[in-house]
Design brief:
This protein has three helices and no strands. It has about 90 residues and is mainly alpha-helical. It has a domain at about 40-90. It holds the Pfam family DUF1507. InterPro entries: UPF0358, UPF0358_sf.
């Protein structure tokens, strides 16, 4: 088992996890499942919360900067916000 994680490896891991969440959110946007799936908000919040903890740990370990950590989380929050806005416009 590898005990040392490099900055580049951590960025790659975080980007992959972020992409998984983006795909999940985009699927929901494409299906406009928000109004039909009451669990969507809970799933989205849980995914974002878990990701934010992962990012926070990477930042605390010095593998990414505070600015990088904040940007990664803000990018997903903006995506989620845009989904809510687009669904609100369609209803």
């Amino acid at each position: 088992m590898q005990e040392i994680v490099t900055r580049q490896e951590m960025l790659k891991i975080l980007q992959a996890d972020s992409e998984k969440i983006r795909v999940l959110l985009d699927k929901q946007r494409n299906l406009l499942c928000l109004s039909q799936c009451p669990a969507f908000e809970e799933v989205a919040d849980t995914q974002l919360f878990g990701f934010s903890k992962e990012v926070h740990l990477a930042e605390r370990c010095g593998l990414i900067t505070l600015n990088e950590a904040q940007q990664m989380i803000q990018d997903l929050e903006h995506l989620l916000s845009s989904i809510y806005v687009s669904v609100g416009e369609d209803e």
